[in-house]
Write a structure and sequence with these properties.
Layout: H1 2-56
């Protein structure tokens, strides 16, 4: 009977150890996700600012569709 109790205790300790490791890994991954989300939001803001700046800058040197001459036909 003693060996069964020892075996059960060993298995329980192993499970507790695995759970603790998994919790630590989940916490680490969560921190990475939060950091990446902040970086994504920052990059989105920068992209919007650049896009707005480009739109408000000098007119484009590329003619609009209405101003383009049709291509020659062969």
């Amino acid at each position: 009977m003693q060996t069964i109790d020892t075996n059960l205790l060993e298995r329980l300790e192993l499970l507790e150890s695995r759970q603790a490791f998994q919790e630590a890994t989940i916490d680490d991954l969560n921190q990475v996700i939060v950091q990446q989300q902040r970086e994504i939001l920052k990059l989105q803001e920068q992209l919007k600012m650049l896009s707005d700046k480009l739109k408000s800058s000098e007119p484009s040197i590329i003619a609009s569709q209405e101003e383009e001459t049709p291509p020659p036909h062969y």
